[in-house]
Design a protein that fits this description.
The protein is mostly helical. The chain is built from four helices and two strands, in the order ααβαβα. Strands 1-2 form a two-stranded parallel sheet. The protein is globular.
């Protein structure tokens, strides 16, 4: 749904599952950073702790990438539509 919604507004959204946080530096090295401007993490817990968060934010700055962290349970009682989610981001 997010892909379709983004296309409607002539934007592009790619979703990647990164199973090992230690590979994030390698991932950033190989993406086209002229295409990507923001990294979205679904939940802060995905980063695995404060030290990983500090490393992640420093890494994003070094690659000139913004980041957002969405809290998994913020809207647990209501459905979140993709257009609302993209507008928040």
């Amino acid at each position: 749904m997010m892909h379709d919604h983004a296309r409607w507004f002539f934007k592009k959204v790619d979703c990647y599952l990164l199973a090992d946080f230690d590979l994030i530096d390698v991932f950033f090295k190989f993406i086209d950073r002229t295409t990507y401007s923001r990294v979205i993490v679904y939940d802060l817990k995905e980063l695995g702790g404060w030290e990983n968060f500090k490393y992640f934010s420093k890494l994003c700055r070094s690659y000139n990438l913004e980041f957002s962290i969405l809290k998994q349970d913020i809207h647990s009682d209501v459905a979140v539509e993709p257009d609302y989610l993209l507008n928040v981001i």
